[in-house]
Amino acid sequence: MIVDTHVHVVSPDEERYLLCPAGIDQGTGAERRPAAWYRDVPISTERLLELMAATGVERALLVQAMGAYSYDNRYAVDSAARYPDRFSSVCIVDVESEPQPAATLRDLVEKRGARGVRLFTVTQPEGQWLDQQVAEPVWECAASLGLPVVVTILARQIPKLVSVLRRFPALPVALDHCGFPDLRGGSPYARAQALFELADLDNLRLKVSSLVLGQLLRAGDEPRAFVKYLAERFGAARLMWGSDYSQTHFRDYAGLVELGRDAASGLSSRDQEAFLGASALEMWPELRAPR
Fold this sequence. Notes:
alpha/beta, TIM Barrel
């Protein structure tokens, strides 16, 4: 089973689902993209289902799109609730500004069906709050709910992630886009050593997204070599593929799926299955439900 662990959907109904409700309109800061990707290549949930059917992707994780909707999680969670046999959703809460972000998270999980929380720091210059007291209630809430945490940070913020992972060793955590590593120069990826130093933290999983694979292609490197290198250090069971469509769209969806398959091609058959789906199913077991 192929599982896409990183898709951003955008509703065509802009009256019901207002774009950028908090006025946020920027890229990640790690890779320059047009700010209006959600207008350039919008993808509704129904269109995503069509693309998945055409490419053999059976399940997907709808990740709250910060650039499109900020902290308004309604379209992602509503879409997952509408198609529970195909999708799960990951929400974002405003850790810094909201009075009770943990209570908001609990409501999104218990009342709206979210199955993960995305802690998103890349819009802040240093993302200082990730391991600070202000974020502790959210980490604790996720742990109490058995809720996977998806962390979106820049490479320089990895030490803060290490601190939290050691405080919550049983909490499953996925690192979006492998933490935006600098992969210039190729193997042994000397500029990305902070990423590889995470290998001994067993509760961490890596999302190897099209954003990362595209960086390798632009540098003239082989994505399959990087994925194999990661598998040798982390184990393939801790790696998971994600398209990052439609925020990443240097290829169409079919092309990004093919890129994911190709990136896994240097692994054994069993490890390819882990990278393309089995690892995600361990973290989000509700996606195992029959269609």
